[in-house]
Amino acid sequence: MNRRRSYKRRKTLYKLIIFDVDSTLTVTKSGATFRKTAHDWQWMLGRLSKLHQLKQAGVRLAIATNQGGVAFGYFEVADILRELQAMARIAGIPKGGLYICYTHPKASKEMFRAVDNRRKPGPGMLLEAMRDFEASPEETLYVGDLPEDEEAAKNAGVAFEWADKFFSEDSHVAIQAPSDSSAK
Predict the structure, then answer these.
(1) Three-state secondary-structure class, residue 165
(2) 120 within some domain
(3) pLDDT tens digits, residue range 124-159?
(4) What value, to the nearest 5°, has the Cα angle with vertex 119 and ends 166 and 155?
(5) Which residues contact 160 (CB under 8 A, 6 or more apart)?
(6) In total, how many domains does the chain have?
(7) N or C: which end of the chain has fewer CB atoms below 10 A?
(8) What three-state secondary structure class fits 99?
(9) CA dist 101 → 69, 118, 164 (Å)
(10) DSSP class of 128
(11) Which of 8, 15, 18 is nearest to 139 (CA)?
(12) pTM of full prediction above 0.70
């Protein structure tokens, strides 16, 4: 099976969609593969408008992102947190909808060197988001761009969609507003 294919679509309506950040929603301004600084990012074409459409449709949105650059000293927690909070605010993602893992098992900064179930491909951040947004695995979709993202979704028991497919013109993801109509 081609690794770029999504899991077979379920006939489920998603009330929570969780997104990876780097190369899913944003790319670097510098053109580098990874951020050179916390400020080295820009929205990918069409991503922000799609997030706003989902938000208007009543879908709960969240972010789950590994930020190992902190673990290797490329930037400070406060700097990347400020940038990710600004990005989430622009996208209409609520304050409680941002899940970040700063650890890495081979980190050069000892305080961030750890094996952590929250770090993708571990399911920790996805499980936290489902708990916080009161969504079952069947009601949750994770959108990402790396095999680690796909594996995290599998480990959390949620559906997965590749970012390029999800944001394509022919994407038809079934969505539903939360039953209590109050997005987190």
Answers:
(1) helix
(2) yes
(3) 999 999 999 999 999 999 999 999 999 999 999 999
(4) 60
(5) 6, 7, 141, 142, 143, 144, 149, 150, 153, 154
(6) 1
(7) N
(8) strand
(9) 10, 6, 23
(10) H
(11) 15
(12) yes
